[in-house]
Every structure is written in structure tokens, then in C-alpha cells.
Design a protein that fits this description.
The structure holds 3 protein chains of 3 kinds. By secondary structure, chain B is an alpha/beta fold. Chain B is built from 21 helices and 8 strands. In chain B, the strands form 2 sheets. Chain B has a 4-stranded parallel sheet. A 4-stranded parallel sheet of chain B has the order 6-5-7-8, sandwiched between helices. The longest helix of chain C is centred in the C-terminal third of the chain and has 18 residues. The chains are: A alpha/beta, B alpha/beta, C alpha/beta. Chains in contact: A-B, A-C, B-C.
Chain lengths: 257, 408, 327
């Protein structure tokens, strides 16, 4: 089976976010980028499929920011093929652009399964994974934790997460796009020396991306940092004082008997 | 392409054996006489499936496969006791152990999750906490002395002070950082820091086996330091000091460096007049492994403590080169649960008993890990009313009338 | 010209979900007088939670055996074939595991805009305006939806407490049958897999001591356990702690874990990411301890302490034990 993994760079939320003075966008120059967490899990799931079922894994990404580091990491983890889509623009592609570009690319590749993260911090006008599935007219299941072979050929079991730690076992007919939330196991660690070695040896295949940006499907009127609204009453002082205050509060509220 | 990288390639194996049998420092592992002095000296030796002696034996017979799969690979806390005592001077702690770990990582062995997170954080953010580099200066908030941020306004200084990750980010250690700033200023030393550009020196990861990550940090730091003019680098972290002194030169990054205890002890003449307030307490000093046992530097910290009026210095039974490690090095800071689950024990809990036996009221330390480790150990021992843990800098600052009230 | 606001109804564990109710509330608030709010039920109307349907003007039940299977692909396709896109102004779906599949698929099949992570929706003159909360809750975006038809994914809690004037009459009830050709069987629901129930059901606990990444290491859990014991409570955790394997999934609080409403929720070393907050925001008393005074948890907590939890917990334990001895 041939699996395509889509990886994206997203704003690193460890850093404070910076918005342009016009409040029309994130200041992408000031924004540190990091691999989208659920895409990292999608990659791990694909590698597990490679280990368990000898799947061939191709990774695809848009050429933005320091995506090369992510791709070298993927190479070090053992993927079979890496494709980079040119993207000479000031901000990363939005969900619509991702879905449409990949919808053009996927039919040219021999893949039956596309896995990618089902969520990303900057998705709000669209969601790439289901949109890609619809554009390809492929099956889709999202919010998935883990894939396994099913008894039927050409079908796979996807475990969809529900509240209360419940899973729904779904049977998905290939070709399919699966939106991964978490992988069956945490993303594996690969030592930096292997990533650096991969950087020496790996060649990416380059593919043309769209020349023009797509207008978002709704008009973005304002982008701004979430204002601090309600706030907790802060207890201050030494640990002993604070502990005492808290015990008083618990007694007052009848929580301590 | 990647297929070969996915499984251990023969060049990695060759590299591992080269490290063992043609090490950059110390004797070749062929010289080992299997005396077992290392194992019996190791504070966690009885819990290791493959203590140092056995690792070398397995390396000789080429059966490292099972060694790297054993949890004991992750149990070395970098205390240097085995290296100190090896009659053949094999560089066990700095060469053999990291080489085994590096090999394990290359073979795809997954390190314990807490270590993975620490490596990831070091890689992405240049500190083990995963905190933003932009927050490196938070410890200076409200500080009443001037902090020269060389990254913003470069100027020649006498001392480039590499603050370190723990003193920059950890609230308990930030107190120590502020006291260091006050002391340096009081002594009239022209000092500066690298502000938000400072990143970890990288000793932890090297000991953990992440050679590649260490190399990356060395390269970045070398380029960074070369931009500035300074006479010497002073560090609070003994591990970082070791890295800078012993390993950075191997990569062509040569910078004069001192641990703060050595630096201040060499300035004792200028320092002494400032030590006005007596600290009437019984104090015992815990020798840290890197500056102490490894560098044989035991007198400088004691000279500093002895200079404080009213202070009565008492020694623990195991002191100087025989001090018992706190268990924080070599990844130990993150692996207490892992180590105790595999039959080891938290060394700081054992060491605190040594301190309590002396009847001391203060346990003085000079390594950032030790503050939190020993303070936790004091709590576990239920001895908060009997023993306080203080960094030497806090005691000096208190005697100079400069501190903000010491620790909690 | 009257237009339809469609709300696909999610039934989970035999009940119409609270999130569906929120979508219906939002639909009513945004509907003009001439608009019609229509709820679409896949299969039979369940016995529980159906009072929410009173908010709709019309309820359409789609009938056929497999229609009630929770297969978003098929249900989304079905909606697209049963609804007239030209007549539909809005499709409002909740951001649940099911909704996150259904909503975007409907939008994609129809080629209409999708507005996700929506926490606020209102009509201003001719357009619909949405406020989206992204980047782990740190960023807000105001969006003007100009298109004729759009799909909106609502975040839970956004419309829960909004007031809606009750309808004067009962909703019109309709049934529509679905043929097997209209059902996309490429994805099939096989079965539910329940987690292995262990000793404690945290949704029943009155006092919860919750730990997050701030607990740092697995061994530090015992500190939380001891505190929980003194308080008479139970330990639970945020997702990262469970993902590490330090706590079983049944102890996870949050979007894909448990939703809890205890008397006391003590959040320790938890930053307050929206996925976690979703699971505990209705606790009666929320106390948060975090080293970072800017942690979002302090916006949801009633009381906050900026400190190292390893310092506060022992002090708290002592104070509690002392109190108990006094009493």
C-alpha cells in the first residue's frame, strides 16, 4: 500500500503571538514555526503502517519556512520519498490552498491512503483533510487514533475518538483520506545526528505549486490577541499563607467537611 | 537513501567501537582489567543490569545488542566516581557511557519519554524546559543592578557570564542568578550576558548520548561567542563549565572558562571586605561532581564559605572526591521515576542524610540541579525545620547585605 | 426571501448532545423572522435530550435502518442531497468528533465556505459575522461571511447560556425516507469500543485533583495522590499526562476525555488549553496553581495561585491536616 503523509508548519505557541499593526494577519516574519502536532502523529502512524504492513511512505510539504528540517527528520525516520511543493509566498498556504493543490497532485501519485493531522492551530476558514477527501471524492474519517488492517482487502480499520475515552471502530474503503488526531504510539525520537546525516544525503522532489494565492472563502475583518476577560481572584503570599487562605475558602464553600 | 539510515549502519557501529578503543581522552577500553572497581564505586551499580565493567566486557565480545536494550543504559547519572577510580584511567563517564547511549539512539532505541521531551526542547528552544528564548531575561525583572545585555549593545567586557537554563527559567534558581548579578557588580567587575540569544551549552545531551544535538549546540554557540569580546566566560553550572572546558575545544571552540566558585575564590581579596554580615550557622558543603571530583576543585568553594564571618564549616563523612552524587547529572534530573522503577534509588535522598548527620543548619551547594534536588530531599526527609539548602552565592550575598532574603 | 438554517442533530449514547442544543440556540438567535430553523435527525428521535428540538421550526427525520449509524461521510452526503443549497443560508454543526467530519464535508461537497472554531455568531445588517478562536485560544479572528451559503462549526460553550424566546408552537415534524443508493457506504461503522473501566469514574467524583504538564515527571504524581487523599478526592489529568501513560485514559479530562462537573477542581500545572477547559469549565469551584501568571487557566479559574505546585501542595496538605486535627 502506498501512503502519502502531509506535513505542515504552524505557529509555535510556546512563543507569544504577534499580530500586524493593521490587525489583518499574524506577523509571519515574527512568528516562529513548528511542525503541526497532529501531522507529526500522522507521520508516526504512517511509519507504523510501513513497519507492520510494508507500506511505502511518501511525505509531502509546502516549501515554507524551515520545512527542510522537518523533512530531514522524516527522512531520518525512514520515509521512502519526499516531495516539496514550491510556495514562494509570504505566508503559509491556507486549508483551501492545501486541499486544492494536493487534489491536483495526488492523482499523479500512486497512493491509496492520505494521512494528515485533522486539526491545525490556524485552521478556521476550511479544514484541509476533509476538503481534500471531498475534492478527490475519496472516503474520509477524521479525529482518528490509529489504523489497522481489516479482513477486507482495500479496506482499513480506523479508530475514531469520542468523548469519555470511547473509540468507534470504522471500516474505511480505500482510496481514503484519514485525519489523524493521535497516532497509536507517541511519535518516535530520532537522534539529531541522524537528522544531520539525512540533511547531507536526502534529495527532495520538487513540484510546482500554484502561482497565485486563493482568496479566503470569507472576509477576514480583524485578527487580534484574545483579550483577558474574566480572571481568577489571585491568592498571594507565602505558601503557608496561600494554603491557609485556600483552606478557608474550601471551608466557606462547604467543600471541606 | 533513508533505508540505510533507518537501521544501524555499519559506520555507526564502527564509530562506536572507535570511541571505546581509540578514545579522544583516557585509555583505550582494551586496557580494562575487569577489576570491577567501577561497578562497586557506582552509586547505582547494584541496580544496573550492565554496569560499566560489563559494558566493556560486552563490547569486547561484540554483544552490545542486549546492552543497549537494557534500561541500565539510562541509569548513569554522570557522577565520575568510576572514572576517578579506574586504575587504567579509562574515561568511562565522558566517553564510554555517552557512546553506548549514542549507539542505542542510533539503533532506534527510544529513550525514556521524559528525556525525549528534554532533547526536543533543547533542539527547538535551546533550553530543557521548552520555554521561549524570549523569556530568558525574566529573572532580571526588578533587579536593581544594571545588566549589560551584550546581544543588544555589544561592548568589551571582562566577564561574559553565561547564566544558564535553570538560573534563567526556574524560579528557585532565578534568586541565585540575581545574587550573582549583585555580587559581580559590587566587586566592580565589568560583566555582560547574552540576553535572549543565550542557549544551553549542551552538556546534558552529550552525556545522554545525543552527540548530534551537542554538536549542533557547540556550532551555534561558537558562532555566537565569537561575536563578542570578553576575557573569560564564567558559569554557574558545573556541567556547562565542563562542556566548555573539555569538549568544546574538540570542535575548535576554545574559550577561557571558569566556574563561579573558582572565579570568585581568585577574587577573595576584593570580596572579603564586603562580607560584613555574619552568618552564624553550621554549614556543610556538598561537592558537585563536575567541578569537584572531575576537576579536583574542592578548595575554592570552601575558601568562599570560610571567608564568611561567623560561619562554621563542617564536613560530611563523604566529601571531596568521595562525595555522593545528588543524582541529577547524565539525565538523572529527568529520570528519578525511571531509575527507582528499575531498582535504583534517588541519590539526593541518601545524600541529605549525610548532611543531616553533621548537624549542619545549612547545606551549601554550587550546582543549579542541586538546589531543587536537595530541597525536595529535605521535604521527603521531613527535615525542613532542621536543614536549609542554599547556593554559595546566596550565602555570599547575604553576608554582603545584598540578597533578597535567600531561598524559600 | 425566507432561507433555511439547517442544524444536523448529533445523537451520542442515545441522547441529543448539548452541543446540538447550542447549535439550535445559535440558529434561533441568528435567524431572521422570515427564516426557518430546521433540525435534521438521522434515524429515530431519541427519548433523551429531545427538548432541544423544540427550538427548531421544523424537524426532519431521515429514515432508513443505517441512517443512524455515526458515519459522517454518508450523513454529510445525505444532507447535501436532501437540502437545497440555494435555500440554505447556514448549516450549523458543533465541533464534536462527529461534527468535525460532517461540517467540513458538507461545505466541501457544496463548494461553500466553512467557518470553523466559531465562538460567536451574529447578524450585522446584511451579513453574518463570526468570531473564530484559534491558536490554542490565544488568537481571535472576526470574519464576515458574505456568501449565500456557509457551514459554521461552533465551539462548545459559546451559546450554552444564551437566552432564546420560546417558540409559540410546536415544530413541524416531517419524515423523509432514504434509499440505500443515497447512502455512501464506503465508510462503515463497526462497533463502539469502551475503555477498560478501572476503579474510579471521575465524572462522579466531587473533588478532583488535576495534574498537567507542570507535574513534570511521573514520580511526582504521588504528590498529587497524597493531596487527593487528604482532600478525599481523586486524581485526574490533562491530555499530555495521559498520552505519556502516567494516567489511564479514563482519568483524562477534556474534549476527548471526560467532561466533569465536580464541586472542586484543583488544576495543578495545567496551562488551560481550550481542549482541557472544555472538560472542566462547569466545575463549581476551580482553583488553579501554575508558575506562569499568564496561563490561560487563570481565566477560567475562580481562584488562582502563581507558584510552583511543588511548594504549594505540601503547604496545602499541612494546612488541611492541621484543620482536620482542630476539628
Amino acid at each position: 500500500m502506498n501512503v502519502l503523509v502531509v506535513v505542515r508548519l504552524v505557529p509555535d505557541l510556546v512563543e507569544p503571538l504577534v499580530v500586524t499593526p493593521q490587525e489583518d494577519n499574524l506577523d509571519w516574519e515574527e512568528t516562529a514555526l513548528v511542525l503541526n502536532e497532529s501531522d507529526d502523529h500522522a507521520l508516526e502512524e504512517a511509519l507504523l503502517l510501513k513497519e507492520k504492513y510494508q507500506a511505502r511512505v511518501t511525505v509531502v510539504a509546502f516549501d515554507f519556512g524551515e520545512i527542510d528540517q522537518v523533512l530531514y527528520m522524516a527522512a531520518a525516520k525512514g520515509v521512502d520519498r519526499i516531495i516539496k511543493i514550491s510556495w514562494p509566498h509570504r505566508e503559509p498556504p491556507n486549508s483551501l490552498e492545501i486541499a486544492e493543490t494536493l487534489a491536483q497532485l495526488v492523482p499523479t501519485l500512486k497512493v491509496e491512503l492520505v494521512v494528515m493531522g485533522c486539526q491545525s492551530p490556524t485552521e478556521f476558514l476550511g479544514m484541509a483533510a476533509p476538503q481534500l477527501a471531498a475534492a478527490l471524492d475519496w472516503s474520509y474519517v477524521g479525529v482518528v487514533r490509529g489504523l489497522e488492517a481489516s479482513e477486507h482487502p482495500e479496506a482499513w480499520k480506523a479508530y475514531k475518538e469520542y468523548p469519555g475515552a470511547v473509540l468507534a471502530e470504522m471500516e474505511v474503503q480505500l482510496p481514503a483520506v484519514v485525519g489523524i488526531l493521535t497516532a497509536s504510539q507517541p511519535p518516535r525520537y530520532v537522534p539529531v545526528s541522524r537528522i544531520r546525516a539525512a540533511a547531507q544525503q536526502t534529495r527532495f522532489e520538487m513540484v510546482e505549486g500554484p502561482r497565485e494565492l486563493k482568496e479566503p472563502s470569507a472576509a477576514i475583518r480583524r485578527v487580534y490577541l484574545t483579550p483577558a476577560t474574566a480572571h481568577a481572584t489571585m491568592l498571594r503570599g507565602s505558601e503557608e499563607e496561600v494554603a491557609r487562605q485556600l483552606v478557608e475558602i474550601l471551608l466557606e464553600k462547604g467543600i471541606l467537611k | 537513501m533513508s533505508g540505510e539510515l533507518a537501521s544501524g549502519s555499519s559506520s555507526r557501529v564502527a564509530e562506536f567501537y572507535r570511541m571505546l578503543f581509540e578514545p579522544p581522552e583516557g585509555s583505550t577500553a582494551w586496557a580494562c582489567m575487569q577489576c570491577g572497581l567501577c561497578t562497586s564505586s557506582c552509586p547505582l551499580g547494584d541496580a544496573m543490569e550492565y554496569p560499566p565493567r560489563r559494558i566493556i566486557a560486552e563490547a569486547w565480545s561484540g554483544t552490545l545488542e542486549r546492552v543497549i536494550r537494557s534500561p541500565s543504559v539510562w541509569m548513569c547519572v554522570g557522577c565520575y566516581t568510576c572514572s576517578l577510580r579506574c586504575p587504567r584511567q579509562i574515561d568511562l563517564t565522558d566517553t564510554v557511557c555517552p557512546a553506548v547511549r549514542d549507539y542505542a539512539l542510533q539503533e532506534g532505541i527510544q529513550p525514556p519519554p521524559e528525556l525525549r521531551a528534554a532533547f526536543q526542547n533543547l533542539y527547538l528552544y535551546g533550553n530543557v524546559f521548552g520555554q521561549s528564548p524570549r523569556k530568558r531575561l525574566e529573572w532580571t525583572r526588578g533587579l536593581e543592578v544594571t545588566v549589560r545585555d551584550l546581544s543588544k549593545s555589544p561592548e568589551p567586557v571582562e566577564v561574559l557570564w553565561l547564566v544558564g537554563c535553570y538560573p534563567s527559567y526556574h524560579p528557585r534558581n532565578q534568586v541565585v542568578a540575581r545574587n550573582m548579578a549583585r555580587i559581580l557588580t559590587a566587586l566592580g567587575i565589568r560583566w555582560g550576558i547574552l540576553g535572549k540569544e543565550e542557549r544551553a551549552l549542551g552538556d546534558c545531551d552529550r552525556l545522554f548520548g545525543e552527540e548530534g544535538l551537542f554538536e549542533m549546540l557547540v556550532e551555534n554557540n561558537r558562532r555566537l561567542f565569537e561575536r563578542f569580546q570578553f576575557e573569560k566566560i564564567v558559569l554557574l553550572d558545573p556541567h556547562a563549565f565542563r562542556a566548555l572546558e573539555k569538549f568544546y575545544p574538540r570542535f575548535g571552540a576554545v574559550f577561557p572558562a571558569e566556574h563561579y566558585t573558582t572565579f570568585l575564590a581568585s577574587r577573595l581579596q576584593q570580596l572579603r571586605p564586603w562580607l560584613v554580615k555574619p552568618i552564624k550557622a553550621r554549614v556543610t558543603y556538598h561537592d558537585n561532581c563536575c567541578v569537584g571530583r572531575r576537576c579536583r576543585c574542592f578548595d575554592a568553594p570552601r575558601a568562599l564559605l570560610a571567608a564568611i564571618p561567623g560561619l562554621e564549616l563542617v564536613e560530611m563523612e563523604r566529601n571531596r572526591e568521595h562525595a555522593l552524587c545528588c543524582g541529577g547529572g547524565g539525565g538523572g534530573m529527568w529520570l528519578d521515576a525511571f531509575i527507582t522503577q528499575h531498582g535504583g534509588r534517588r541519590l539526593s535522598d541518601v545524600r541529605i542524610q549525610h548532611a543531616l548527620k553533621t548537624g549542619a543548619e545549612i547545606l551549601a551547594v554550587s550546582c543549579p540541579f542541586e538546589l531543587s534536588r536537595f530541597e525536595n530531599a529535605v521535604k521527603v526527609a521531613g527535615a525542613e525545620d532542621r536543614l536549609k539548602v542554599r547556593d554559595i552565592l546566596e550565602l555570599l550575598a547575604e553576608s554582603m547585605g545584598l540578597n533578597e532574603g535567600g531561598g524559600p | 426571501m425566507s432561507r433555511r438554517i439547517a442544524v444536523p442533530v448529533e445523537v451520542y449514547r442515545g441522547q441529543i448532545t448539548d452541543l446540538t442544543r447550542e447549535c439550535l440556540i445559535a440558529a434561533r438567535l441568528v435567524a431572521r423572522d422570515e427564516d426557518e430553523v430546521v433540525a435534521y435527525v438521522f434515524g429515530e428521535i431519541p427519548d433523551h435530550g429531545n427538548s432541544a428540538l423544540q427550538l427548531a421550526d421544523r424537524v426532519v427525520t431521515l429514515e432508513n435502518g443505517q441512517v443512524s449509524q455515526p458515519v459522517a461521510l454518508a450523513q454529510a452526503k445525505l444532507l447535501c442531497s436532501k437540502l437545497d443549497r440555494k435555500d440554505t443560508e447556514l448549516v450549523l454543526v458543533g465541533s464534536s468528533s462527529w461534527g468535525l467530519d460532517v461540517g467540513p464535508l458538507v461545505a466541501a461537497f457544496w463548494g461553500v465556505p466553512l467557518v470553523a472554531n466559531c465562538q460567536g455568531l451574529e447578524r450585522r445588517q446584511a451579513s453574518l459575522w463570526a468570531t473564530c478562536r484559534i491558536c490554542a485560544g490565544k488568537l481571535l479572528v472576526d470574519v464576515e461571511v458574505g456568501a449565500q451559503t456557509a457551514v459554521v462549526l461552533l465551539l462548545p460553550g459559546s451559546f450554552l447560556r444564551k437566552e432564546v424566546t420560546p417558540r409559540a408552537t410546536q415544530p413541524v415534524m416531517e419524515k423523509e425516507s432514504v434509499s440505500s443508493q443515497e447512502w455512501d457506504a464506503r465508510v462503515r461503522f463497526q462497533r463502539w469500543i469502551e475503555p477498560q473501566r478501572e476503579d474510579v469514574d471521575i465524572t462522579q467524583a466531587e473533588i478532583l485533583v488535576a495534574v498537567g504538564r507542570g507535574i513534570e515527571r511521573q514520580e511526582n504524581l504521588e504528590v498529587a495522590e497524597e493531596l487527593a487523599e487528604v482532600l478525599g478526592g481523586v486524581v485526574c489529568g490533562s491530555r499530555p499526562v495521559v498520552d505519556q501513560g502516567w494516567l489511564p485514559p479514563t482519568r483524562q479530562v477534556g474534549k476527548s476525555g471526560m467532561i466533569v462537573k465536580p464541586k472542586l477542581y484543583l488544576a495543578m500545572g495545567i496551562s488551560g488549553a481550550p481542549e482541557h477547559v472544555e472538560g472542566m469549565k462547569d466545575a463549581e469551584l476551580i482553583v488553579a496553581i501554575n508558575r506562569d501568571e499568564r496561563a490561560p487557566i487563570f481565566h477560567v479559574a475562580h481562584y488562582g495561585i502563581v507558584a510552583d505546585l511543588f511548594d504549594v501542595i505540601p503547604a496545602l496538605k499541612e494546612a488541611l491536616v492541621a484543620r482536620r486535627q482542630e476539628a
